Amino acid sequence: MSSFLSSGLLSLSVLLSDCTRPPQQTTAAAPDTTLRQTVASPPQVLLPAATPLRTGAEQFDKYLPLLKGKRVGVVVNQTARVGRSFLVDTLLSKGVGVKVIFGPEHGFRGEAADGATIKDGKDARSGLPALSLYGATKKPTPEMLRDVDVLVFDIQDVGARFYTFISTMHYVMEAAAEQGKQVIILDRPNPNGWYVDGPVLEPAFKTFVGMHPIPVVHGLTVGELARMINGEKWLAGGKQCQLTVIPVAGYTHSTRYDLPERPSPNLPTAHSVALYPALCLFEGTDVSVGRGTATPFEVIGAPTQPSTRPFSFTPSPNPGSTSPPQNGKRCYGQDLRSVGDIGFTLKYLLDYYQQSTNKEKFFLSDRGFDRLMGNATVRQQIIAGKSEAEIRAGWEPGLTAYKAMRKQYLLYPDFQ
């Protein structure tokens, strides 16, 4: 089982403090209303396996010229690093005119618990205003972007539709399109980018945990997804933003990639990231996925499961989950830390529903589970006792159509 570098998130201190003063105002440049969507030097061929990966952020020659003389806003969290340095610190050291930092769920330095309200503040290291895009304001306002010409997005994704960093990216692109700002995506590998699976989200179930008609495992990097959002005109009013993607060098969709930093507090290992697409569906049920333990998204269990299950645990508050589901209750289930590479599966979900001693309470709310799944049909099929093969057959036509559309937006050689 792989783990992220021990010097990552856990060693960071909270660097934000309340700040009620807005950023210093300067005269805004006239917006460039000419639509541009560009990709800087995308790889065209399958590169040798020995070719080292270089994230978009590491390729200064590709994007620093685009930032020269510009007022820059950065959308980042703790994964936005160049080596061991935060991207913000690196850009400032190179003379880039960073004016404001935007942080998604978990905050700029990535330390807030899941679902916690993030307050606006100031980064103690740089002195820059650090504004939250999680909570009451998910989309940058005109006031937030008044002193910005270009937005740089650099956040590690894990390739699942309900991981909210891609929703933040959507709103950043939308605000940029409406306000005439440029967007630069510094791309990073997708650790679950080697396959595509699950039902495509139906429009009626669009929420912050699922904004796009894509499957649960979408098989795209954030740069490729940004191109799809723009190309399919999914932004409000069918607008498109001025988009530039800096691709990862040496990456293909067959590349298996262990993240150097944990992407959020409750995905602490590479194995938890691999299990996340299948286990996150339990968040709409009474089954705990291990929030409030040392092994989130690597164990599952509930008080309503048989006590003969081979493993048990008791969630309790910790920094990553201050009020975990089933807090203080003995949960009976499984330890999945030793399971192999399973990809996206419904087998755990079907098993735990069938074994539940209180099926009426298994789904916490119809809409909660359905929002994660992207439809109401799968929940109804589970209750009706359908098999995984029967359930998959229902979503296959939509998944096939998505796979065909996806090919238009790929920047990297695809998996075989």
Automatic annotation (TrEMBL):
<dbReference type="InterPro" id="IPR048503">
    <property type="entry name" value="NamZ_C"/>
</dbReference>
<dbReference type="Pfam" id="PF20732">
    <property type="entry name" value="NamZ_C"/>
</dbReference>
<feature type="domain" description="Peptidoglycan beta-N-acetylmuramidase NamZ C-terminal">
    <location>
        <begin position="275"/>
        <end position="412"/>
    </location>
</feature>
<feature type="compositionally biased region" description="Low complexity">
    <location>
        <begin position="303"/>
        <end position="328"/>
    </location>
</feature>
<dbReference type="InterPro" id="IPR048502">
    <property type="entry name" value="NamZ_N"/>
</dbReference>
<dbReference type="InterPro" id="IPR008302">
    <property type="entry name" value="NamZ"/>
</dbReference>
<dbReference type="GO" id="GO:0033922">
    <property type="term" value="F:peptidoglycan beta-N-acetylmuramidase activity"/>
</dbReference>
<dbReference type="Pfam" id="PF07075">
    <property type="entry name" value="NamZ_N"/>
</dbReference>
<protein>
    <submittedName>
        <fullName>DUF1343 domain-containing protein</fullName>
    </submittedName>
</protein>
<feature type="region of interest" description="Disordered">
    <location>
        <begin position="301"/>
        <end position="328"/>
    </location>
</feature>
<feature type="domain" description="Peptidoglycan beta-N-acetylmuramidase NamZ N-terminal">
    <location>
        <begin position="72"/>
        <end position="270"/>
    </location>
</feature>
